[in-house]
Amino acid sequence: MNKSSKIFVAGHRGLVGSAIVKNLKAKGYHNLLLRSRSELNLLDSLSVSNFFEVEKPEYVFLAAAKVGGIIANNIYRADFIYENLMIQNNIIHQSYRNNVKKLMFLGSTCIYPKECPQPMKEEYLLTDILEYTNEPYAIAKIAGIKMCESYNLQYGTNFISVMPTNLYGPNDNFDLEKSHVLPALVRKILLGKALEASDWDFIKNDLKKLPIENENGSSSENHILGVLEKYGVSLKNDEVTVEIWGSGNPRREFLWSEDMADACVFLMNKRDFKDTYDNSDKEVRNTHINIGTGKDISIKELALLIKEHVGFNGTFHFNEDKPDGTMVKLTDVSKLNNMGWKHSIEISEGIKALCSHYLETA
Ligand SMILES: NC(=O)C1=CN([C@@H]2O[C@H](COP(=O)(O)OP(=O)(O)OC[C@H]3O[C@@H](n4cnc5c(N)ncnc54)[C@H](OP(=O)(O)O)[C@@H]3O)[C@@H](O)[C@H]2O)C=CC1
Ligand SMILES: C[C@H]1O[C@H](OP(=O)(O)OP(=O)(O)OC[C@H]2O[C@@H](n3cnc4c(=O)[nH]c(N)nc43)[C@H](O)[C@@H]2O)[C@@H](O)[C@@H](O)C1=O
């Protein structure tokens, strides 16, 4: 990319898209093409086709997707497979038709088998069955990788795929039912701390963002306690308890979204499809690359780190009626590290930054 290249960032208001825009602008890329969902619905093939024909982007970051945590993936299974396939099919196909110079497709490490050898290398793709809770989403992401590979092989395009680990950062989704674990735990533990301190102003302000069933318009403390309990923050015998889904034993690897964006821009400039396989390969597979830190932590350890940072004194209830999902998914990031990129924000620093971000934007 050069500084005046026309770059389409699809999903620019999201966690990763907004970080990619920030990274590109900071590096002097000034010809960015951005469209909100109301301006361009990426599910609508005709609108996407018209957009590409008129705008002719040169580079595309495909960071738009239907995204959510373990329960959202498990419940809205049809939406996750349909919307992700549609968005990526529309953008990848139009990028081919309109001679986009390079496209980056963002997948996810949930493409790897449920019981994958650890750490997960790129070549472990499609070697065993997937985790059930996010199988429809993972299948869409695998289709995205294969679509990029297939267009490259048949039509000579230059579409690359990156597989990020679990991400978090500014513009994260803090919805307590649909979000990923890190923003959910930050919010629940901050609410738990506020409840300990009887900080009703903080709690009432925070709850304005929840879809509360408030039939009688009541804002009494009892009503609020009922709402908090529904979302996993409860007060009993003067002790506050925060609910953690599952056993607390699953391990996850977390990457700060601005590091993720930096890796994307780095790879967009450094990696072409032709670099991803050997010319002697009869079968071209596993051309994607992992993005992560190569370090993981259990959900229980994560909750304890947040608890310590926030100064919450209550207890955790591990609700094993909620799914654990994959028990361990640590990425092998040696390919990326060997290319010269490494993450900069460790989890303890990232937790502090995410808490500050939440409090500033709450
Ligand atoms: N968050 C994570 O932990 C991980 C994310 N990823 C992948 O990274 C990518 C970015 O995810 P993330 O930033 O977290 O997701 P977000 O949900 O934060 O952002 C997704 C963006 O896509 C947009 N979008 C979704 N559907 C449409 C549509 N029909 N038309 C137009 N825009 C649409 C959203 O618009 P709007 O703002 O209007 O909703 C939003 O801006 C995705 O491919 C995701 O699968 C991979 C691994 C982990
Ligand atoms: C990025 C990745 O994200 C999803 O997979 P996931 O890693 O399982 O997602 P998660 O962040 O929601 O959960 C991680 C772990 O944490 C536990 N957990 C505890 N307490 C809360 C909690 O309060 N909320 C959530 N969401 N999880 C909780 C939860 O039970 C699980 O054991 C994919 O569907 C797919 O979208 C994908 O690719």
Summarize the structure.
With 362 residues, this protein is an alpha/beta fold.
Describe this structure in words.
The chain is an alpha/beta fold and 362 residues long. The radius of gyration is 21 Å and the shape is globular. The protein has a six-stranded parallel beta sheet, with helices on both faces. It is built from twelve helices and 13 strands. It has helices at 15-26, 45-55, 70-75, 77-97, 135-155, 181-196, 200-207, 221-230, 257-270, 299-310, 334-339, 347-361, and strands at 7-10, 32-33, 59-62, 102-106, 159-164, 166-168, 233-236, 239-245, 251-252, 254-256, 289-291, 297-298, 315-319. The mean pLDDT is 96. NADPH dihydro-nicotinamide-adenine-dinucleotide phosphate binds next to helix 1 and strand 6.
Q: What are its keywords?
A:
Rossmann fold, 362 residues, single chain, 3-stranded mixed β-sheet, globular, 12 helices, 6-stranded parallel β-sheet, UDP-galactose 4-epimerase, domain 1
Q: CATH first level of the largest domain: which class?
A: Alpha Beta
Strands side by side in the biggest sheet: 2-1-3-4-5-11
Query: What percentage of amino acids are in beta strands?
Result: 5-15%
Please identify the oligomeric state: single chain
Under CATH, the topology of the largest domain is which? Answer: Rossmann fold
Kindly name the structural category.
Answer: alpha/beta
CATH level-4 homologous superfamily of the largest domain? NAD(P)-binding Rossmann-like Domain
Largest sheet, described in full? 6 strands, parallel
Bound ligands, named by name, code or SMILES: NADPH dihydro-nicotinamide-adenine-dinucleotide phosphate, the ligand C[C@H]1O[C@H](OP(=O)(O)OP(=O)(O)OC[C@H]2O[C@@H](n3cnc4c(=O)[nH]c(N)nc43)[C@H](O)[C@@H]2O)[C@@H](O)[C@@H](O)C1=O
- Counting DSSP E segments of at least 2 residues, the number of strands comes to 13
Q: Round the Cα radius of gyration to an integer and report it.
A: 21 Å
The rough form would be described as globular
The first-to-last residue Cα distance is 37 Å
Number of domains: 2
The ordered string of helix (H) and strand (E) elements is EHEHEHHEHEEHHHEEEEHEEHEHH
Number of helices: 12
Q: What is the correct CATH architecture of the largest domain?
A: 3-Layer(aba) Sandwich
**How would you state the average pLDDT, rounded?**
96
Helix content: 40-55%
